[in-house]
Amino acid sequence: MGSRRVAAAVALAAMAGGGLGAVTLSPAGASAAVSTSVVTKAAAASCSTGKYQKQVEGYINKLGMFGKTKVDGKQSAADCKIIIKFQKRYGIQPAAGLAGPTTFDVAKRLASTKVAACKPKKSGYTFCVNLTQQTSWIMKNGKQFAAPTVVRSGMKGYRTPSGTYKINKRTKKEWSDPYEVWLPYWQRFQGGKGFHQTTTYIHDKWRGSHGCVNLLPSDAKTYWNVGKIGMTVKLIGRRPGT
């Protein structure tokens, strides 16, 4: 096994939450055994039953976008594939199919989001944000246009305020002087606050923005393509702890 293949195998095992255990990387003769062992452990870890298996199954079914799981609290190959698809969509790492706390938290927040609570304009587009659930979605002509997705708003001391605003500036790549970082797909709606692609792992609970609404890369592009100057932004609720 070449060094690149060994590294890839080790990385695969690490992502799955396991390690190499008692496997010894001996010369050429053991390479096949190492590869088989790592892949087997990765597969077993990714399709094992997670602590929040039944809850995640139920929430994913309620969302109705990823396929139908059997809500029995027992992992199956089909359930694993659906959960991986869910994890990849919302940037959960590792996307290995395990129903852990982050997957549970994201699924619960999304399934609990009531899009009608935004009370959007009856015509045109509205960007909606539920600060309590840390979710966002897009409405068009009073109806859902883009399903709720995850966001991250201002942390303690930098609370993102609820209210109704208008997009007043759009820049595909904005430089932040105070924090010395590029903000991709920037759409400002109030003061120095706006939507932009996240610059760190969005699911780090202890993190938060300095008042902006952070979006996953794919969502930031969607919002950019829909947004325009003067478009309505509605933020409801309040992020817990702020």
Question: Overview of this structure, please?
Answer:
The relative contact order is 0.13. The protein has 6 helices and 9 strands. The protein folds into 3 domains: 3-46, no CATH class; 53-110, no CATH class; 115-236, L,D-transpeptidase catalytic domain-like (Beta Barrel). The radius of gyration is 21 Å and the shape is globular. Helices cover 31% and strands 24% of the residues. Strand 6 (181-190) and strand 7 (193-197) form a beta hairpin. Strands 4-9-1-2-3-8-7-6-5 form a 9-stranded mixed β-sheet. It is an alpha+beta fold and 242 residues long. The longest helix is centred in the N-terminal third of the chain and has 16 residues, at 31-46. The termini are far apart.
Summarize the structure.
The active site is at residues 196, 212. This protein has 242 residues and is of the alpha+beta class. It has 6 helices and 9 strands.
